[in-house]
Amino acid sequence: MSAQPVVRNRPGPEPDWLTLGQAARFLGVAQSTIRKWSDDGRVRAFYTPGGHRRFRLEDLESFVDGSGPGGRNRRGPLVLVVDDDARLREFLRVSLEASGYSVSEAEGGEQALAAIADERPALVLLDVVMPGVDGWQLLRRLEERHGSIPVIMFSGQVDEASARAAAEGGARGFIGKPFDPQELLARAKQLVPA
Fold it and tell me: What DSSP assignment string belongs to 56-108?
């Protein structure tokens, strides 16, 4: 009589289906964010008979591959976000991508110019106060080299003189920080519809 193989319980591979909470942890976002993305059709969701969302791991991996800086599956107009604050860049990227834009990021003026040389954006969102090349200097360079790219500037210091200087320098908008993301999106959509 031959011996039967012994089957042991081993930890299996990652599950193919994830709950809303698991999917949010996998993507590193809040559950409300992935819920909005699935409502907008950006992330494919399936529903259980009880109405709960489930996400396939391979769909989430495809979403990650196509999102963020350098994403392969860009859909909408490209917006370049230039700010030295990584958290603000991330916040703007998520908000813009949820509205159908593709987004690239730069933490300073030189990095922004290199990004524009790689791929010309349809819109630039530009912080005024940054180390090295500040927003005013970058606006001048953009006007000299790429005058037709619309620019919206933002700053924590907002006064009429700054707004006038931005308009005279070629910016199409000037918004104060902290700003309402809906106001920024409305301005972006006026200049470059998604």
Answer: EHHHHHHHHHHSSTT-SS--S-EEEEE-S-HHHHHHHHHHHHHTT-EEEEESS
